[in-house]
């Protein structure tokens, strides 16, 4: 009890410093918040530049907005209610249809829908009590530190935070669920090809911003379809910065422990050595592209890895990329865009980090820029070293992924593109 009180005080101090403390023009630390906003001559632009894009919410505000973090019906003191229907373990055959404002949850947080006083739809992410240990608090603050500094049309917009009654982050509310829930929900119509392509491009732009357009680079570390939330107009928003890390300009990478993230999306150098840099996200983005194209999860219910499946599928079908497309789309896709997505994915998921493209190059490629032969050609010895990285834990036909004869993603794209790159404005790479 005492400890959590002390932590809360620290957090409040952190927030007041983060919001209130500024550097004055001579670069000295100075609490200029009051001064800055009391000087009438400062024009609007300067003020909006100084002012953080978010604010502190009171606990009463978020309580009111979420209707007291309303979860719908609870049974016998269970803390969490569920979407859909679940039965009690008592065997009494009781069924509850639960969840009211609870819209999602992850490893350490619950997310509630709410309506702010001004009528804006908000999402309140609350650190769950069960996970309020110091490490989780740190992750939560990391998320605040990262997302509180970013503003981009493809990055989830932080509206504020609240440290009373627990830790809370307040975001704009995105009512369409995640790309993952839309892609894999068998009961709703498949996402149209055009939207898939736009989501890929928008997400690439958001990542490019995090890696390249900020003074200090941000590595997200958990790029995956369930962390990409489309807005009403299907503009993808990169969300969930709980694992994000700053990368100072003088550092090439950082080594982190423990290794966290999502199975099936982890870059080999991160998975094996904990090495994190932009290429960690680039790899995960490549897996995301494949998920969008195929409609398959990075790791399916049978523990089959998507990259393995693609390699096996390509091998069995002589590298015909049409066979990779989500069957729910039928013939409804654009072949030129498909080739771009597959080509980009093949580069992004290269096992050797240094041979993967930067997000600048990925955006360029997806948006139709010319890719020159020299830029992407691998040296022979590099090609030999490029062993496919994946899991070989099943011996069915669909999982022939690590045998030397298997066509890798890279070889697949090279085969397919030899004839077709010209028509895409790119030159042959083989
Ligand atoms: N701004 C938002 N608007 C609508 N729904 C959201 C929003 N943010 C998150 N969600 C929903 O809540 C879910 C969990 O959120 P989030 O991924 O941020 O939590 P987490 O605990 O960090 O998860 P993880 O275990 O994946 O790290 C998301 O998958 C999404 O469905």
From TrEMBL:
InterPro entries noted in UniProt: Kinase-like_dom_sf (IPR011009), Prot_kinase_dom (IPR000719), Protein_kinase_ATP_BS (IPR017441), RBK1/2/STUNTED (IPR046958), Ser-Thr/Tyr_kinase_cat_dom (IPR001245)
Keywords assigned: ATP-binding, Kinase, Nucleotide-binding, Transferase
Matching Pfam families: PK_Tyr_Ser-Thr
Stretches assigned to the Protein kinase domain: 97-377
Keyword ATP-binding: yes
Residues binding ATP: 125
Molecular-function GO term, any one: protein kinase activity
Name of the featured protein: Protein kinase domain containing protein
